[in-house]
Design a protein that fits this description.
The chain has 657 residues and is α/β, with parallel strands linked by helices. It contains 28 helices and 10 strands. Helix content is 63%, strand content 7%.
Length: 657
């Protein structure tokens, strides 16, 4: 068997195994890929003695990463957050880069090398930080918004570094300043060229491609656009990643943005994984082992300095000091783009392979510490900059008084929905205990006489303190899918027989909660639609008794008439929703179609997990046709189901198997 084939299979096997292990341990997949690179590299298994064998594919991964970043680059978002982005974010990047570059320069490094080392150290991991914050349900807090703003500026700052590195490599006899000016000059020319052509041409191309309704053509066009833009900047002697970023930015405001992102994601993730594997292969283990004390010292120094620089920048721009300390600790690691810059700089001989290995080693350890840093960032901020009022408030709020409660309702989350439920329960004389993690909201509520406790609703001890043993019902009101699922599992572990009602915005997530053990899931959009329909029917003259019966039947049958919709050109489908949404589709049964003169039973449509919701014959509509209804030529059959199933059943109705 071909040795190359065996090496590829072995590399994929290692990737699958270690990504699974790292994810089970709560660590990011990036670390797994880097570790796979170390194991597969020339110093351990030596599956690939020369990591540059995969260099081109890995670089295409960077192209797709920057294309995705460009799609996220929204000018309206930048304008809305301009004070934080161009204030705190720019300050953090400038101060941190300058300080680390100064340290490297003092240790005898050339100016060009010092600037690159400073830039690598200043960057943080957008992917890891945002995912960790989002998983914790804290993305919209002021300190998280500060962290996101800084990350946004860092993502913008990556582009000049990618432009400058090839020029710094060829500027041995020129000044660094001249190299950067040349980078700026070339960058301006390329940006103007691509933007002027792309703004006019790309929307027209994608409009035409979208009309063909061919997924393969859409994906191929997306890949071609990213690669062509990358090739254009490369032809100017600049980084390929810059062109991909500009192409994504040109399409960021288009109606196809989400579809483009969904189409490019599988290629991006796989090739980015390959890129990080090649980075890991270049890690010199002797540097990690024999210079481990320098790695630890660098790690500690980076965490301290980056946290201090965020605090300094926030102080200059008059931001909350507690939020600044917390945001600084969240951003104390190195980012994935640090590895991109390290690889490019080592390839262009701006830094040595030993320096690259040292940076990668520090980055690996800092990323591994990130979940811990984020989880304890709030406690650290409170410790280093205590807010006495908040501490006193939390101490006051943590005293539960539920010893004598029986048959009460637990309201988990006391926001808008939780407070509305509490008011209705009070009108009926039903006791309740609410739990919420916002100290100000809890303080306000308790001052008004509400029975509200402070704390994280996923904590078993807090649920016990709230009297879960004697409660008659638990209601989860907050719309954070992963955390709500965790709470359902915790409740089932404490008291499996307790009914749990969950409020969710997205109907397709209901099955997750039912599988976890929820008794009832209330999809807010469907319920809102039901209330709207009831008002419309009332004003249309339908008797109230019939309206109430209709509403009851819809709930009883799981909102069957409210599932499925006719997709349009602007319908957003992502990889997270494509197998959960239900589409409705009208199939015109032509003269020679397979389904002609066959009954719905004979076609066995239900077995294919698609519903027949209607039949139109000679301009007359038959709602929910009988299973023995025979399909005739020129009938229009209305079906509902998951997108791929709908496509398959249409092919079956027209052409058979």
């Amino acid at each position: 068997m071909n040795q190359t084939f065996i090496s590829i299979v072995a590399l994929m096997g290692l990737s699958v195994f270690f990504v699974w292990c790292f994810k089970r341990a709560g660590l990011p997949a990036i670390l797994a890929y880097l570790f796979v690179g170390v194991v597969a590299g020339p110093e351990v298994l030596s599956l690939y003695s020369d990591p540059d064998q995969m260099h081109l594919l890995a670089e295409v991964g960077i192209v797709f990463l920057l294309f995705s970043l460009g799609l996220e680059f929204s000018l309206p978002k930048l304008v809305a957050m301009r004070n934080l982005v161009f204030g705190v974010g720019a300050g953090q990047m400038l101060f941190t880069t300058s300080l680390f570059a100064g340290i490297a320069f003092l240790y005898g490094q050339p100016m060009s090398t010092s600037i690159i080392i400073g830039g690598m150290a200043a960057l943080s991991s957008t992917a890891i930080v945002i995912k960790q914050i989002d998983d914790a349900g804290r993305l919209n807090t002021p300190r998280s918004q500060m962290a996101v703003s800084i990350l946004l500026f860092q993502d913008i700052a990556v582009v000049p570094f990618l432009i400058a590195i090839p020029l710094l490599a060829s500027s041995s006899e020129q000044s660094v300043g001249f190299a950067l000016l040349m980078a700026l000059f070339k960058g301006v020319i390329v940006v103007v060229l691509l933007l002027s052509v792309g703004r006019w041409l790309l929307p027209r191309i994608f409009n035409e491609v979208a009309r063909t309704r061919t997924d393969e053509l859409f994906v191929l066009t997306t890949i071609l656009v990213a690669l062509l833009a990358a090739g254009t900047t490369y032809a100017f002697g600049l980084s390929m990643a810059l062109g991909a970023f500009l192409a994504g930015m040109m399409l960021s405001e288009s109606q196809y943005r989400h579809q483009l992102e969904a189409d490019i994601r599988p290629f991006r993730d796989i090739l980015m994984g390959l890129f990080f594997i090649t980075v890991g292969m270049k890690l010199e283990l002797n540097v990690l082992i024999f210079d481990f004390h320098w790695v630890l010292l660098g790690l500690l120094g980076m965490i301290v300095i980056k946290t201090l620089m965020v605090r300094l920048s926030a102080f200059i721009f008059n931001q909350n000091k507690q939020d600044a300390w917390a945001a600084g600790m969240k951003l104390a690691q190195m980012g994935e783009f640090s590895f991109v810059i390290a690889a490019l700089a080592a390839q262009n001989k701006v830094i040595t392979s030993q320096q690259s290995s040292l940076v990668i080693s520090i980055g690996l350890l800092s990323m591994a510490l990130t979940p811990w840093l984020i989880n304890y960032s709030g406690a650290f901020a409170q410790w280093i900059s205590p807010n006495k009022a908040t501490e006193a408030l939390k101490a006051q709020l943590s005293q539960p008084d539920t010893k004598n409660l029986r048959n009460h309702v637990l309201i988990l989350g006391f926001g808008r929905v939780g407070q509305s439920v509490a008011r209705m329960l009070k009108l009926e004389g039903i006791q309740y205990v609410a739990l919420d993690v916002d100290p100000i909201r809890v303080h306000e509520s308790r001052a008004a006489g509400e029975n509200v406790l402070f704390g994280d609703v996923s904590q078993r001890d807090l649920l016990k303190s709230a009297g879960i043993v004697n409660a008659q019902l638990a209601l989860i009101t907050f719309d954070h899918h992963d955390k709500a699922l965790k709470v359902v599992n915790v409740i089932n572990g404490l008291r499996p027989e307790l009914p749990v009602v969950v409020r969710t915005l997205k109907d397709y997530q209901s099955s997750d909660f039912y599988s976890a053990g929820a008794s009832q899931v209330i999809p807010e959009i469907q319920e809102g639609s039901l209330m709207l329909v009831s008002q419309v029917l009332h004003y249309a003259g339908v008797p109230m008794s019939r309206i109430l019966k209709r509403v009851r039947n819809e709930r009883k049958k799981g909102y069957q008439h409210m599932h499925g919709f006719y997709p349009g050109e602007t319908t957003e489908i992502t990889y997270g929703t494509k197998d959960k949404l239900e589409f409705m589709h009208a199939v015109v049964i032509s003269e020679g179609a397979f389904a002609v003169n066959k009954t719905i039973t004979e076609l066995d449509i239900e077995r294919r997990r698609v519903k027949v919701t209607g039949l139109r014959r000679e301009n007359k509509e038959i709602e929910e046709p009988d299973a023995e209804t025979r399909i005739l030529a020129n009938d229009v059959l209305v079906i509902s189901g998951k997108p791929r199933r709908v496509e398959r059943i249409e092919h079956f109705l027209l052409y058979g198997n």
